[in-house]
Specification:
alpha/beta; four-stranded parallel beta sheet; flat
Length: 324
Amino acid sequence: MTNIRLAKNSGFCFGVKRAIKLAEQTANKYGRATTIGPIIHNPQMVESLKKAGVITVEDIDLIETGPVIIRSHGIPTESLSTLKKKKLEIIDATCPYVAKAHEFAKLADKENYQIFILGNPDHPEIIALKSFIESNVYIVDNNDGGPLLPPPLVSLQCEKNNSVIERISNEKFSKIAVICQTTQNISNLQKLSELLMPISNELRIFNTICNATNVRQESSLQLAKKSSLMIVIGGKNSSNTKMLAKLCSEYAPSKHIEVAEELDENWFKNLNYPDTIIGLTAGASTPDWIIIEVYNKIKSIVGDNDFVVNSVENIPGYKEEPDE
């Protein structure tokens, strides 16, 4: 019998559930709806919503009729102004945690803080967030291979923060405020805060990492430490899923997949069954039905078909135990 365990809190978070519900309700009421960019970062869920009448448009100028749903990541202020000028009905599905970061950004900007944002400058959440800031802003990117942008937008890797911070260390800031992408890792926020402290007379940190991100990362790490293989399920364009895969890979061989068809039989060879643990975790925008399909597919690959599930609740969860 194969020991497959699912990390706690895997799958949809509150913000995603809310956005999906609003999209479904809107499509059901009007027969159609439009989102500016994918409402969440999961291609399979976006395709499912498309069948229900929710279409995705990247160019806001192409939208002539409502209703329009604001994606869970939020949209730039100028895009919102354009929609209002068109007098279109707007359904706001912005995640409340993301919206809170917008409020912090406006507050820090109003109080004349030099703002640093920790996150991917190309991610829609950060593109929207920086639109709420009228003054210059530093974008600190910890993604490997991230582009280095000229001031006022600076992108850097956490591993190279020291060298980049030296470029601006000749300027002593009176006040610095730090805001981060909601799917960031707390250790990255701590590293950046430590680097900014010597060049600021006042450092204010807005910890805008959402609780769902924290609990997913912690439970996934606990499982990875005990597993011989981790399967991380979620959109390849999902920041929180990519972060899960990166963190898990520090403790166990980890594979980031979107759907069950991507599973490779070779990954499961030479594992010491039944003693070994195969760990599963899923990003905040991964629907239950994909998690179920992955679990059942793994059972089939390893020849353990005694218990096929039709509900996430039927997948054995991992009970965290204290380290020996």
